[in-house]
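Sample entry was shown:

___
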Amino acid sequence: MELGEKLERGWRRSTESLLIFAVLLGFGFFINREVELKGLYMDDLYLWSCYGEQSFMEYVFPMGGSRFRFVFYLASWLELLFLGGHVEWMVPFNILLNSLIAFSIYRMCLSFSSGRKAVSLVLALAFLSSRMAYYQIGQFYGLMESLGLWAAVGILYFLYRYMNERNSVSYLYGCLLYFLASFIHERYMSLLPALLLALALAPKRRGSKRYEDGRRGSLKKAGWEEEDDGENARGTVRETAQETARGRSRGRGTGRGRSFAAAESELPKWQLFLVTLLVFGAIQAIRFLTIGTLAPAGTGGTEVADTFSLADSISHAWEQAAFVFGRNSGPDYLCILPYEDSPDGIRLLILLSNLVLFVSVALFAVCAVRDRSRLLVHLKNAALFLVFIAMCIGSSSVTIRVEMRWVYVVFALALLFFSYMSSVMGRAGALVFLYAALAVPAENFYRDHWDNLYLWPEQAKYNSLAEQTIEKYGQEIFEKEVYIIGNTYEMSEFTAETFLKVYDRAGSYDGRSIQFIDSDLDFKELSEDMVILAEDPEHNAYQDVTDFVKKQRLNYAYGSYEDGWVDEHAKIVFMNGERDQVTLSCYYPGTVTGDQVCQVTVNGKRMPDLVFTDQNMTYEIPSAPYQMIELELSCNFYVANAKETRGEEKLAMIVTINAE
């Protein structure tokens, strides 16, 4: 093949890949368009605080804790370094990452489905539309789940390649991903049996009749032909005209025009077995040295060894399997809405999609049996998929509850298995489209009810807190004292101290925490550097009531103005502080003759007159603490020759209430 033709084919493939990724990315942003992350709390905020207060080594390689996830910590450190205080960028970042995973699933589906592009694209879109993506998209800690999922599907892909091509490099890649996945989340250590199964099921070494027969069958099924040039007994591999026309790119080692002879650096199984044991041993040794135990930690601060129950684990496994088939179970705050409580139309869609899956499995079984020359290959591949799925389900079933975010990886693996089944089913593989047409609307329905989940109302509160502080006041918020009336939301002391630090890009935050008060009456005075918030439980939000409180405390009813000036007749409504009297400081900027008299009325009761004997006069009004006062002033004087008239009457004097 000439260089120009190779470059042209490479350009076509690159352009097609970019177009597919653009479609997936656009769909990812569209399907998650209403998800927002503006304020961090709980695990997300704690992780940020570690980033802000610890060195790189302390953050990425924590010693002595209950978990050691240095791969995830490194990735999160890099993300925080890039994002800085822009919390609002986290959701777009999560969407981009999930779209990259979907593109990887698309490419894997191409390989598993023998190059069916439409099938692969539909399954990748189904992955993005899943209701189980709530944590990956809506939380900073979703990075951990996304990376773990990505690594898991990658392990499956490389094990599949090893089994079907006997490419030792693929198996070693699988071991590498297994090592990394175990330090993204320790539950992926459970995938060890899948690695060993791939070793056991892989065909015999190259050169044996059984291997060569299986290899030729695999090539033929995938659309490749073998050509013997008379000099190389093993032959070289060339693409068929059909393959060239379709422009397939499976990424199976040989899928890029390389000869099988180039992959002859094959390691025997016993060496790969030793590598597997060494990787697993290294994982356990690192865990023991860093956290002092080999036992994985459980959910919610529990230990698996303390909470494990075989009966509960079996029950949780069935729950996860049901989730994959669209059937939610458990309380609303964990499953969005149970299947039994879902609308009839949604349940019908789920039932029909399950029927499509049942028919697909039956057709796959029939077609696999009919393909006698490759029946054993299909059985082995199906075993790999099913065992891999079972291991992922089992690893999430040993703890105290089931969360949908843990099932997302199982759903992704099921989609990959479906793509493989479509390649065996022939034209019946079109059932993938019918399944997606039924399942995706149901997934979108549940997505619209994400607010039922346990984290959604809490996230809404802290999004609102961010809106009412940093979003409204910008960096000036660090020059103010933030108060919240009441604390029925039970914000922790840690959150109150740390929440605003996240947004301090200039390093000007002096460590002042959010403070809680029982009432605005706790304040003696209201100053300009105060921000007062109130809880709004009906909307899981906060409201900025600073201006409302100020107006309630000092309401200029008529004839009075914020700078203290009052007209000849004025009424001021305000609330006294903790004092047992109100002190008025009055200033008349004219010539005092002794005839300047002001009538004073408090809450409808006539008080002694204020008679000016000097330009500055003080007038005291008895009052109970925190009493609402209606003060009326009626002056027989005004400022002569005043250059300004604000109301219908002339300005008379300047009044300051409770001035120190």
